[in-house]
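Pasting as-is:
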Amino acid sequence: MTTTPSPSRDPWVGVPRPNPAARLRLFCAPYAGGGSSIYSAWWRELPAHTELCALKLPGREARMSEPPFERLTPLVQALATALDPWLTKPFALYGHSLGALVCFELARELRRRGAPLPRHLFVSGRRPPHVRGSDPLHGLPEPEFLERIRRMGGTPDEVLRDPELLALFLPVLRADFAVNEVEPFVPGAPLECPISAFGGLDDERAGRAELEGWRHHTRGAFRVEMFPGGHFFLRSAREPLLRSISAVLGDVERALPA
C-alpha cells in the first residue's frame, strides 16, 4: 500500500492546502533567497484537482538553523530523494530564477534514477542553463553584493536596512547564488516533457531572446510567454501568470487516464 506523505512532518515539502482528491501535483521551487511561503496563496488560483507543493530548502524559514546548499548537484540529489514518496501522482515543476535551474536539473536527476518524470516543466525569469551569466555575484564584497541585490528589486527594504536581518539573510543569498553560478552546465539529452518559459517584459536578465533558448532542452512542445513587470513579475503579474499555468495544468489533467 502506498503511504501518503505527511506535509506537516515533511521537512522538504509544504502543502498550504492538502488536496487528497488531486490528480496532479505542482512542485514549486523558490528564487535565490526565497522560501516556500512565496507560493503559499497560489493554490487558490490553480485548478481544483491540482495540489500545490512548495519546496522547502535548508537555510530559510522553518529550516533556518540548517546550512544552505552551496552547490547545485548535491541540492538536486537531496531533492530527488526527498520527493520520492511524493511522486505517486502525476506532477509538474515550476521554478523562478534559481528555482528554474533547480527544477530543470531535478527533472534530469529523476530521469537518471528511472523515477517518474514531470508532465510539464515551467521555468520563469532565467536564461537557459547552457547560457552562462557574465557577472558572478556570490563572491562579491559585501557593499557591491548589496548594491546588486538592491538593483534586482526582490529583497524588502526593511531587510536591507536591518543589520540583524541582513546577518541572517546574506549567507543564504550568497549560497543560493553559488548554487546558481559555480557548477558548469553538463549537456545531456533534451527532456521529454513540454517546457513553458515565462519572462517579464522589463527583465534585462532574461528577456524573450534568452528564454527562447530553453527550446533546446525539450523534445516536447515549447512556448514562451511574457508578462508585465521586471525580474519579479511572478509577484507583480501573479494573476495572469497563474491563469496561464492553470490553463496548461488543465490540459495536462485532461490528458491523464480516467
